[in-house]
Amino acid sequence: MTDDKKHMAHTVTVATGDIGGAPEGAAGTGGRPNRRVTIIREPAVTRRIAHRSALQKVTSNGTIAAAVMVAAALLAVIVANSPAYEVVHEAIETPLGVTVGPLAASMSVESFVNDFLMAIFFLLVGIELKYEMTVGQLRRPRQAALPMLAAVGGVCVPAFIYLALNLPAGNVHGWAIPIATDIAFALGVMSLLGNRVASETKVFFQTLAIADDILAIVVLALFYGQSPDVAWCAASLLLVVVLALLARAHVFSSKPYLFAGLVLWVCMYNSGIHATLAGVILAFFLPARSDVRLSHLRDWLSSQARSLDDDYDDEAHVLGQHDFTASAERVEHILHHVTPPLQRVERLISSWVNFVILPLFAFVNAQVRLMGADFAALAADRVTQGVFLGAVVGKPLGIILVTLLLVRVGFARLPRHVSWDQVVAVGIMGGMGFTMSILIAGLAFPNPFEVVAAKCAILLGSFAAGVLGILFVRVHDALTSHGASGGNAAGRPARGDAPAPGEGD
To answer: Do 304 and 355 reside in the same domain of the chain?
Structure first.
């Protein structure tokens, strides 16, 4: 989450927390005490709102979301190697059907999770990309160039390592498995290090991971679709035109976009193009602007407050105060439209994605059955080696070497407070490619043994990358702080401190 989004979330939390009003005697403007003003009549409602705010703090915590996803994956591995496997496997393969008049469609639970629910995940990914291109790091090409080009290195080197190991055996279709970085998983693990990692490093890593997502989405679209169906492709293109027309017509309600996005998903699901990409396409057409003139909002609210005050009758029941409720509804409508559709959809789906969809995806796709497996054959398999070494070795090499090259030739400089040891940590943690890697593994191989080999390598590689990243940062900090007061080694400013004049960009 970027600093702008953290500030926004903090503002929302504060606003929710203040809904009960200021206590009597608290200092107000100019030091005058405030008389308590309670906007909510019922204490039970106030308590529910407070509990909802506490729940929002939990659901917006990236570390908790990553932990839930990892727990779901571990549970899947346990279940897959227990007597419950047959029951769970049968449930995952259960067909789900929808019938509307003469039309009928069905898919398995696994396909529903991987194709439909993951399209909602990709919608959230697309929203994050558009946010970054609008107000985040990606709106400054020069500033974003270094982590974005480092992401290219982090994609190419793992792919080369995989191909070098698998080209002789002909298992080349899995080359894209080790190229991805799971941004939620990686940032969740990085947050465990607290202030050992500078906030600028987290922004650098987030920009890199977003660029990595873009590249992975392009790879998924170009190399892992099926034979295209021309009619359904044409229908998909027509729906993209509809989304573009909605945006051009300045439609600021999210409902038409979501409906068109659902129809787009149906068309893409039947077109041979991977249907999850419908989520990314939808995100890029959701308006990122408000249709309210924000500069005039304060004056308008003041006039509406006077109107509400004139219309209110404290002796009448609210159901009989038609002018008052009409004015209140008008204010509610305008305040709803202050938030852009892009942000409204993000709030709607983010908790569901982090705490329902991704854990479900992890549980369904991490069903790696190892009972009776030949572990020697798995370890010796070139797919296992290519995926594991590509993620754990290739990813750090690509990220670090490209960053080093660009800095050495003078193309870019490291952001302030981002040191080389933290670039190494970013490279190591870039090997955590859980979600996208498992999705690609399921598409890359028809042979179940190769799918199991790839998934084993993904799970072990993600675990190894996370542990190695944490150990590297802790060991490096312990070594550099030994004999240096306050953890400030070699004259380098402590993380979070202000830089010396002329340091940084």
So the answer is: no
